[in-house]
Amino acid sequence: MGFYYENLLRPLLFRLDPEKAHDLGVTGLDYLGRVSFLCRMMERYNAIAGAQPLELFGLRFPNAVGLAAGMDKNAQFWRATAALGFGHVEVGTVTRHRQPGNDRPRLFRYPEQGALINRMGFNNDGAEAVAARLKATRRTRKNYIPLGINIGKSRVTQLDQAVEDYLTSFNLLAEYADYISINVSSPNTPGLRELQNKEHLKSLLGELSQTNRQRAKKLGQPHTPLLLKISPDLTFAQIDAVLEVIAEYNIDGIIATNTTVERKGYFATLQEAGGLSGLPVHKKSCGVIKYISLATEGHLPIIGAGGVMCPRTAGETLDAGASLVQVYTGMVYGGPFFAKQIARSLSARQRDWV
Ligand SMILES: Cc1cc2nc3c(=O)[nH]c(=O)nc-3n(C[C@H](O)[C@H](O)[C@H](O)COP(=O)(O)O)c2cc1C
Q1: What is the domain extent for residue 189?
Q2: Nearest-CA residue for atom 3 of ligand 1
Q3: 151, β-bridge pairs
Q4: Tens of pLDDT along 141-151?
Q5: How far is the CA of 306 from the centre of ligand 1 (A)?
Q6: Which residues are catalytic?
């Protein structure tokens, strides 16, 4: 399958503007998600024989590979992701207010470097519309893989109103989520990454955590796991501060990492503004994961994202201390069955350990 993508489909798709190619992919997967018997057939075909499910924050993941936030921003095709071999899917980033994002062009490919740069700016339909879509499609949810919903700050919302903005999205979306990912790390919304600073983070995570636990108590069910998604550009001192806040509010896990704004060495020529992903961010993401894993003595669950482009880079992400990986750029270059390839390699590693 990978052969056909690389030699037939990818050359055609890569002739298109990157965002048009993306939209075409979303439309195709949206249609696929509506045909449940086809999804079930593909899911069976893509299932990894002998894969050990993983338990994390009370959820059961059929394999270690998830779709990272940003590809299914509006929860349009999440139903098709199990058919592609994913073990979980994160939709979003969803913001309280519907917003168009930045002007186009805002997505750039660098095949030689195995990289993308994006400055999408959280283009999305808004929390209310995404909640309505999830409500309508939930009952057709037969193929169960955990569904994460990633929430972020609306562009029009000032930083001092950010907590309210996140809370509104949380309240609209929590009932559809197996976990909520709190995005404070995308570089394309002015001020967003400042929410990683200790004082901002304390009020944000404090309020979200309290609301989440009150909601769980009221419904008499376990709380929805909350995960924080962080930037690879934090210093170790800044990571220490983040970890303190995470511990204070019993946040369930961390997603490390988002895209980087740094351009260094071989990648210094990639000068478009925005977040750099793929191979150039891999070493940085692994550095952050390793630091967190050591600092927390492996007690804080980590989902590793950043430059998982092949079985080797996926293995390195787990070696650094992640329990699961997420992919975005790797799928753009590797095609629709990339998840299966990575999941199979990680499952083989698991068997080798046993
Ligand atoms: C085009 C594009 C859009 C993205 N949009 C989001 C987003 O909306 N929210 C988010 O948390 N991360 C977003 N990301 C970051 C990815 O989820 C991921 O953390 C990052 O790209 C590193 O993984 P990768 O190297 O496998 O791409 C986006 C990445 C790309 C390439």
Answers
A1: 2-353
A2: 70
A3: 94, 182
A4: 555 799 999 99
A5: 8
A6: 186
